[in-house]
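[RESIDUES AND BACKBONE]
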Amino acid sequence: MLRRAALLVVSLLAASVLIFLVLRLLPGDIAQTIGGIKATPAQVAAVRHDLGLDRPLAAQYAGWIGGVVTGDFGRSVLDGTSVSGQLAEKFAVTGPLAAGAVVLALAFAVPSGIVAAVRRDSRLGGAVNAFGQLGIALPTLWVGLLLVVVFAVQVRWLPAQGFPVDGWAEPGQALRSLVLPWLTLALSEGAVLLRFVRSAVLEVLHQDWLRTARAKGHTRTGALVRHGLRNAAVPVVSVLGLQIAALVAGAVVVEQVFVLPGVGQMLITDVGNRDLDKVQGEILLLTGAVLVIGFLVDLAHRLIDPRLRSTV
């Protein structure tokens, strides 16, 4: 496990280097943007010096990553605001959005996938399976717009867009603002997870040791709960990790649809403004979240499967 933790740290450092270098390859010059179209070369050079852009890339990277290690992601080159402060503010929206969607997706996919496998020859199992296939086929953007039309425009139960100006100081209104985004992400990601849960449970149902458990007196449900679900969980946890990573990317789209002031919307705005200090901090945060999820999936595997613990 220490080796896996060390690999996580190396991966984060490699990702930070890649993010830093790729952003420097983008066309345009932020110093020219700040100076304006009428700025002289000397004025542009002065702006570059003030921003530290005339230093070697290695020195720029060292200064940035050194701050990141201490929790300081730098300052915006456009307005001078703290990137760390803005990331914390935006993550207060994106974090609950992603976490709530994962909880809803699991609550929907796990029992539905088990039912679809156990009752695979019944109408109920076929209906659940068809619903999962439909959820995979529908684009996330379309699902979000459909939910807005039904629940915000037609029945007017929930707000169509936006988030309270005071944020979580108004918890009731904040939660109402996240219900439709939660459902949008949960239905799209949960449908994929449902299919994998169904496949994993079907594979377990055909194992000899499960038939042996039933021969010893366990009912099919009892044998599945006591012996089968733990084995079925290993591949499902792997897929769940991938789905959570995909959900982080999907949150960018959902934040645009529902006009949520999260990290995704902030990223799109800052890319357009070419505010590189903010962009690299945002991308590093999202990349780090994906890498940490992979690390947690490995931990979950070792907790579920004792054979993996014995190899550490």
